[in-house]
Amino acid sequence: MRKIIYFALAIGGLALITPKESSAQHRGNDREWKHEKEHRKYEEKRDKEERKYWEKRDKEDRKYHKKVAKYYRKEYRHGPPAWARAHRYDNRHHVYFRDYKTFYDPYRNGYVYMRNGRWSFSANVPSFMLNVNLGAANIRVVKDVPISRHPEDFYNDYRWD
């Protein structure tokens, strides 16, 4: 009978001890969970600040590129040159000024001419053509060269002497 009593007390003692250990483990997990919660909150705050930073940068970039595009349209796209109306030119093809060995390139919005044996580009009318009435000059509209290509590369294919 004593054995049964000792056995019952031992089991009861184990039953009393076990919940204490589990509750101690639970408190430790609670501290870890609190730490993880604080860390997650910190990461969310950091991510929000980073997102805000990149959104601001993107907004500034869009503003800058919009400004550059506006400047480009204003400064570099004036439409057809002054002599175009006299020749009924519509800015869709290259033009070759035969007498001056000069091209008008509408894609680059400028003139390509031979200088010292090399091709040169100028956004303005070349100096040797300043006093020439380009509206009455002899021209040839070059339709067989794509507008995105440089006309001087095909000079030997379509020059007219």
UniProtKB/TrEMBL annotation:
Comp. bias regions, Basic and acidic residues: 23-52
Region (Disordered): 21-52
Name assigned to this protein: RcnB family protein
Domain of life: Bacteria
